[in-house]
Amino acid sequence: MNNDMGNAFAINLSILVTIAYLANLVYKYVLIVAPGKIKYVVSLLLIFFSAYASMYFGFELGEDVIFDLRFVPLIIAALSYKKPYTIVFVGAGVGLCRLLFGINAASLAGCTNMIILGVVAALLKLWFIRHRTGYSIQAFVFIVIINVVNQLNIAVLGVIPFNFYMVHIVPGTLLMGTALSTGFVFMFRDSQLERRRNQELKETNTLMMRQTEELHKAKIVLEERAKQLMLASQYKSEFLANMSHELRTPLNSIINLAQLISENGTSKDGERDQQADEETALYGEIIYKSGQELLQLINDILDLSKVEAGRLEITQEEISICEIPDLVYLPFELLAQRKGIQFRVHRDESLPKTMYTDGQRVQQILRNLLSNAFKFTSQGEVSLTMRRSEQRDQVRGDWIVFEVQDTGIGIPEDKHHTIFEAFQQADGTISRKYGGTGLGLSISRDLARLLGGFIRMDSKQGLGSTFSLFLPLK
Q: Which CB contacts under 8 angstroms, 24+ apart, belong to 132-138?
C-alpha cells in the first residue's frame, strides 16, 4: 500500500510540476500584458485545476477514500497571495472540487478538511503580514503546519478508523507529503525568482533601449545645434565682411572729401572761386549722406543689441494714424523719382483716427520695410497700404495692417525662414550688390513683437514681395 501511495504521490507531484510549467508559459507569452484582474482569476482557476488533477490521479484506498497532494496548491496560494480572504477562498474551492468525485462521507470529510486548512493558512498569513516574516520562514511554517493539520483532520473527520490511520498510514503520508510539498514549494519559488529576474531583465533592456533612443535624439539635437552654431558663425562672418564694406565706404568718403575741402579751401590768392564753392557744396552733401548712412548702421546695431539684452524701451502713447503716411512718404518720394518707380500710399477710411503704440518704433519698422522694398525694386512700383485686418488674414481680434508691397526681385521660398534672423540675408553676397547689413528685418520683427504685433511675408522669386505689419488696435 505504501508503494502504491508513494507512486500516486509521485504522479501527483509530476502533474503539479507540469501544470506549473505550463502556467509559467501562459503567463510569459499571454498573461504578461493582461490586466491584473484577469491574471488573478486565471491564477485561481489554475490552482483549482491543479487540485482537481491531484485528486483525479490520487491513490484510492477503497471506493471513496482518496489520498493525494491537493493541499500543495493551497500552500502555494498561501505563499503567493497577499490577502488572507483569498486563501480562505482557495481552501473552500479545493474542498468543493473534492465533491465533484461524488458526495459521500469521505468526500464531505475531505471538503471540510480543505476549508479548515484554508482558514488555518489565512490566519498564519495574517500573522506573517503583521510580523513581516521572510519567505523561507513562511514556507517552512506553512509546509509543516498544513501537513500536520491535514493528517489530524483526516484522522478525526475521516472514515478510516483513528488507530489504524495513525499507526499504518500517517507515518508514510506525513513523511511523503512533507517531503514532496517542500520540494515543489521551493522549486516553484525558484521558478518565480527566475521569472522575476527575466522580467527585471526585460524591463532593464526596455529602459536601456529607451535611454539609447533618448541619447540618439539628444545627439540629433546637439548635431542640429552645432549646425546652427556653424551657420550662425558663417552668417556673422558674412555680416562682418559686409559691415566692413558698409563702414569703410562712407568713412573713406568722409575722410577723403574732408581732406579735399581742407586742401582746396582757399585759392592761391586767398579767395575762393565759384568752382571751389560748388565742389565744396557737393562734397558737403556727400559727407552728409555718408554720415547719415553711418548713423543708420550704428543705430541698427545698437537697437539689435538692446533688443537681445531686453533693454529696448517701448513708449505707449496715443498717435495719429492719419499722420503716419505723411511721415513715411516724404523720405522715399525723392528716392522713387530718382529710380523711376511709382510710390503709392493708401489709407483705409474705416481706420480710427488714433491708436496707442510707440509711434517712433512704428515709423522705424515701416522705414526698414520700405527701404528694403526700394532697394530691391528697379522697376514697377512700391506701395504702402494701411487697413483693418480682414477674414483672409486669419487673425483674431481687431488689428491695423501696414502692407508694404513691391515688384522687386522677390525671395526664394527656401530662404523665407532665414531672412528675419540677425546677420542673415537671402543671399550672403547680396549686400555687395545692393548694400545693407541684413539687420533691418531682424530688428523690425523684434520691434513688432515688443509692440504686441507681428510681421508676415509673402514673396516669390522674380515676382516681388509683400511684408505685412500687424499691430493691435485695442
A: 135/79, 135/189, 138/78, 138/79
Q: Which residues, other chains included, contact 232 with Cβ-Cβ below 8 Å and sequence gap of 6+?
A: 423
**DSSP assignments along 213-259, one per residue:** HHHHHHHHHHHHHHHHHHHHHHHHHHHHHHHHHHHHHHHHHHHHHHH
Q: 146-164: b or e for each residue (b if 16 or more CB lie within 10 Å)?
A: bbebbbebbbebbbbeeee
Half-sphere exposure at residue 358, Cβ-oriented, CA atoms within 13 angstroms: 15
Residue 98, C-beta contacts closer than 8 angstroms, at least 6 positions apart? 55, 66, 70, 107, 110, 111, 114
Gap between the Cα atoms of 116 and 94, Å rounded = 11
d(CA 366, CA 339): 19
Give the C-alpha distances (Å, rounded to integers) separating 21 from 50, 77, 183, 271: 12, 16, 15, 120
**Distance from C-alpha of 233 to C-alpha of 239, rounded to nearest angstrom:** 10
pLDDT digits (tens, 9 = 90+) for 294-318: 766 677 666 666 666 666 778 889 9
Query: Which H helix or E strand runs over 21?
Result: helix 2-29
Asked if 384 contacts 404 with a C-beta cutoff of 8 angstroms, the reply is yes
Nearest to 250 by CA among 293, 285, 296: 293
Residue type, 298: I
| Cβ–Cβ < 8 Å for 287, 257 | yes
Task: Say which amino acid occupies 72.
Answer: V
- C-alpha 78/C-alpha 428 separation (Å) is 78
First vs last Cα of the chain: how many Å apart?
Answer: 102
What is the per-residue pLDDT across 232-285, written as a single tens digit (0 to 9) for each? 666 665 655 565 556 666 666 776 766 667 666 554 454 556 666 676 767 676
Does this model's pTM top 0.85? no
Residue 274 DSSP SS3: helix
